[in-house]
Amino acid sequence: MAEATEFDVAADDSPLAPRGHRDYDAEIRDLGLKEYCDLADEQGFAVVPPEKVAPPEFIERLRNTVLRVAEERTGQKFSLEENGNQGHYRTEPAIAGQFLLYYLLFEDRVFEEWLNNRTMRALVNHYMRGEGQLSSLTSFVKWNGGDYGDTLGLHSDTPRPVSGELPKGCNDVVNSALALTDYSKEDGAIAFVPGSHKLCRYPKPGEGVEQAVAVEAPAGSLIFFNGNVWHGAFPKKTDGLRLNLTTYCCHQRLKTQEQYQWFVPREMLERNPPEFARFLGAADAMGWRKHGPEITRFSKWSDETQPVPEEILELHPA
After folding, report:
1. Which residue, 213, 214, 230, 314, could crosslink 196 as a Cys pair with Cβ 3.0–4.6 Å?
2. Average per-residue pLDDT in the chain?
3. DSSP letter string over 140-159?
4. Are 195 and 244 in contact (CB under 8 A)?
5. How far apart are CA 225 and CA 233, in angstroms?
């Protein structure tokens, strides 16, 4: 009988094999983010202070743009000091005292700039080893009365399989909320159950409420968290708006919440670094139609730090 052969699982002999083999931890060290990664490993979330995220002027641009988009979609005027009104805008989940602005990337170039943010991208790469992809870019607009009820809306962001068990050995989802206003418990801050990501399951109804803690963070902070951690939000009891920009990322093997892959205009890819295109799914050969997978087209882009080849760019609308 022939001897059993051991397969070399590290072999990279496929033109479409994952290319996440850079030293992603080096950038974490260079940016001084290791302590926040350690925190996220232990409690499931970490708050990166504003000075490590982006200048105040950039946060102000983002905040003003979110308010503009809110006004355009609702037909209402907004002020940070006053409670909101969703006007004729209807989205799910429909909850009193808040609404979500979905699919923000194409609304303004400031959102492209955010997706190139070194701190946010370094954290995503650290946890997804270069295989992360933007799933959705949204903003929660919340005011006095915004309330998920007694359960605080506690949930996990990782898609729940039939087994009910969430992944243990890798991250299918990582998420972050960029605070565009100050966060406190009275202002309806995000609620986390520290360490719950290690349970690798969804909470049972009402479970974790007593252990939930509020994130206290100034505007400009990046609240980064593991997709398995249980989280929700406390009710907002103060007047005025609580705003954020939520950057939800999934492993490239999963479906994204919002459609980007074939919808990103060519000019957007051309004016941004090559890594931007990969983050938006331009390197994803899946989702083909009658033309099939066209492996040779995608195999031409073997290094994400190099310009996106013409063969891929021509798939995107001009």
Report:
1. 230
2. 90
3. EEE-TT----TTTT-B-SSP
4. no
5. 14
What are the tens digits of pLDDT across the range 140-163?
999 999 889 899 999 999 988 777
| Residue 265: cis peptide before it, omega within 30 degrees of 0 | no
For 250-273, write each residue's pLDDT tens digit. Answer: 998 899 999 998 899 999 999 999
| Domains contained in the chain, number | 1
Q: In the structure, what pLDDT confidence band is assigned to residue 16 with cuts at 50, 70 and 90?
A: very low
On whether residue 307 sits in a domain, the answer given is: no
Structural domain includes residue 243: yes
The pLDDT of residue 3 is: 52
Q: If you count them, how many residues does the chain have?
A: 318
Locus of tokens 């007047």: 239
What backbone torsions phi and psi does residue 47 show, to the nearest 5 degrees? -110, 110
For the chain, strand residue ranges (E) read 45-48, 98-101, 132-142, 173-179, 190-192, 213-214, 222-226, 231-233, 242-251
159 assigned to some structural domain: yes
Q: Is residue 299 part of a domain?
A: no
Specify whether the CB–CB gap between 69 and 107 falls below 8 A: yes
| pLDDT digits 0-9 by tens, 166-201 | 877 768 999 999 999 999 999 999 999 999 999 999
Residue 215: give its domain's CATH number: 2.60.120.620
Query: Which residue from 132, 21, 128, 144 is spatially nearest to 81, judged by alpha carbons?
Result: 144
Can you give the residue range of the structural domain that contains 58? 24-258
